[in-house]
RNA sequence: GGAGGCGUGGCAGAGCGGUUGAAUGCACCGGUCUUGAAAACCGGCAACGUCGCAAGGCGUUCGUGAGUUCGAAUCUCACCGCCUCCGCCA
């Protein structure tokens, strides 16, 4: 959520910032609502003040045993006007809130211009693509030949975009998650968390999935009429830990790592990446989250991105680091780096991690604040990034570590998690 | 699932329907004292919203939401959460 003060005082700057995203905004309705709000709110507060004063007076008169009837008559006249004003104000505030809640974050000054992914800028590249003296297979062919990826079973059990893993590939998948968790907790100072996978609407609002992107979520209706949502990323439960809290600034940053399944309905992406496990309704991800003091969040973004990169480097997977352009960023982000891993069968790079600084955007929605010693509370900053998407990392390992005979070498750093297995062989 | 109890400020803990946004203690901040620190003493210390150049004013908030009332932390109802006991259970 943008700071409503910014909308009031610098509407042109907001419109300019949003235009960089390609999110044209008409602030006229906002300004009209604001004008009404100001008038109605002032009037309401005046009436309330009057009522309070008279009520206090009644109390005092009664204490002295004096006649109260005249004052009672006076205050009685306020009732209807006050009630009407309060109701009108509540409607206006709700409308304003709905309007502001749907405005995306402003891109940071360093974010490159651009409308879509073609405007993204490569800022770094690590390693080299593996050289094959044969035509590399994609992970679908490899995984099926190894007997470990069963797409048909996933479809039978649940439907399209669900996959079943078996045997050594299921183990490799688990090994990847373990390796990531261990690296981030032991080497990067993150605290491991286990969280709920079903969250309430307030949490989804806090990180920005609601109210605008409900169709991307899986929703669970309960018999009492309430609803929960399956998390699309651990960002949601983890970031919402600080919702409604005031934290001591000196105790920041908080650094959390969390391995969860992620559930996405992928509405609007029909026909996209239908082959294989690149785009699934359910996938595992190891997520990094930082709760940072405002003045430290930009450094934190570089560090956090580096932590995600470490995983790719230890796995010796070739990747590039992209600065997303304004038009390609997510709703809540002020700046995002995507890490794209090399997939030889597709002869291309695919997103495997997305690392963002949200500045105070989520914190304002969550009312998450920090306080310096003796100071006033102010919104803190939140960040997160995949470290990494486990399913896509599995895909990358299979495709980059394949050999001509269809076997797949287990990366060095994973062997300890694989009971010493050095390669997966077709059965 | 059954029975009972409880939800107040960063924490602990008071609070007859009426000058209570809320006693008191701890924590925290400032000061006196001290070579320094501690102790003691004095003072300050909720959040949010809104109006205002500012000083400051006003409003809202005692789990959440409705209601009764001129006036609700205090009364009524519903919901949420927590605790204790019983039952069941991965």
Task: Offer a concise description of the structure.
The protein is an alpha+beta fold and 427 residues long.
Verbal overview:
By secondary structure, this protein is α+β, with helices and mostly antiparallel strands. 39% of the residues lie in helices and 21% in strands. It is built from 13 helices and 18 strands. The protein has helices at 4-9, 11-20, 28-64, 69-76, 79-101, 139-145, 151-157, 167-187, 201-207, 235-239, 297-314, 361-366, 390-400, and strands at 121-126, 149-150, 164-165, 191-193, 198-199, 218-221, 227-230, 246-248, 254-263, 282-292, 319-323, 335-343, 348-357, 369-371, 377-379, 381-389, 408-409, 423-424. Strand 6 and strand 7 form a beta hairpin. The longest helix has 37 residues, at 28-64. It starts with a helix and ends with a strand. The structure holds one RNA strand of 90 nucleotides.
Rounded mean pLDDT score: 92
Uncertain stretches? none
In helices, the fraction of residues equals 25-40%
What is the tally of helical segments? 13
Radius of gyration: 27 Å
- Estimate what percentage of residues fall within beta strands: 15-25%
**Reading side by side through the largest sheet, how are the strands ordered?**
1-11-12-13-16-10-9-4
Main beta sheet: 8 strands, mixed
Given helix and strand content, the structural type is alpha+beta
- List how many beta strands DSSP finds: 18
- Coarse shape: elongated
* Beginning-to-end CA distance, first to last residue: 53 Å
């Amino acid at each position: 959520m943008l700071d409503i003060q910014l909308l009031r005082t610098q509407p042109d700057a907001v419109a300019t910032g949003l235009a960089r995203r390609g999110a044209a905004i008409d602030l006229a309705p906002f300004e009209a609502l604001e004008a009404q709000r100001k008038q109605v709110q002032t009037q309401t507060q005046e009436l309330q003040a009057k009522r309070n004063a008279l009520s206090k007076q009644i109390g005092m008169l009664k204490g002295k045993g004096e006649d109260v009837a005249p004052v009672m008559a006076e205050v009685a006249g306020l009732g209807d006007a006050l009630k009407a004003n309060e109701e009108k104000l509540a409607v206006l505030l709700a409308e304003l809130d709905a309007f502001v809640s749907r405005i995306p974050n402003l891109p940071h000054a360093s974010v490159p211009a651009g409308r879509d992914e073609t405007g993204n800028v490569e800022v770094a590249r690590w390693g080299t693509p593996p050289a094959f003296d044969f035509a590399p297979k994609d992970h679908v062919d490899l995984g099926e030949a190894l007997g470990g990826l069963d797409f048909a079973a996933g479809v039978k059990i649940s439907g399209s975009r669900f996959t079943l893993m078996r045997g050594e590939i299921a183990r490799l998948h688990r090994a990847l998650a373990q390796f990531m968790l261990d690296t981030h907790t032991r080497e990067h100072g993150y605290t491991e968390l286990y969280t709920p996978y079903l969250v309430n609407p307030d949490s989804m609002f806090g990180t920005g999935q609601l109210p605008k992107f409900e169709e991307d979520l899986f929703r669970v209706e309960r018999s009492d009429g309430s609803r929960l949502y399956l998390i699309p990323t651990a960002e949601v439960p983890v970031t919402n830990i600080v919702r409604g809290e005031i934290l001591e600034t000196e105790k920041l940053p908080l650094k959390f790592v969390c391995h969860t399944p992620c559930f996405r309905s992928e509405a609007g992406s029909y026909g996209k990446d239908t082959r294989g496990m690149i785009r699934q309704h359910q996938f595992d991800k190891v997520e990094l989250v930082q709760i940072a003091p405002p003045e430290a969040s930009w450094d934190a973004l570089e560090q956090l991105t580096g932590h995600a990169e470490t995983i790719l480097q230890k796995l010796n997977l070739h990747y590039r680091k992209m600065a997303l352009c304004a038009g390609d960023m997510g709703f809540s982000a002020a700046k995002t780096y995507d890490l794209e891993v090399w997939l030889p069968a597709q002869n291309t790079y695919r997103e495997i991690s997305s690392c963002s600084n949200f500045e105070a955007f989520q914190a304002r929605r969550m009312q998450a604040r920090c306080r310096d010693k003796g100071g006033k509370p102010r919104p803190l900053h939140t960040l997160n990034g995949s470290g990494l998407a486990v399913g896509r990392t599995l895909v990358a390992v299979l495709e980059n570590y394949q050999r001509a005979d269809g076997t797949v070498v287990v990366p060095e750093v994973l062997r300890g998690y694989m009971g010493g297995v050095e390669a997966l062989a077709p059965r």
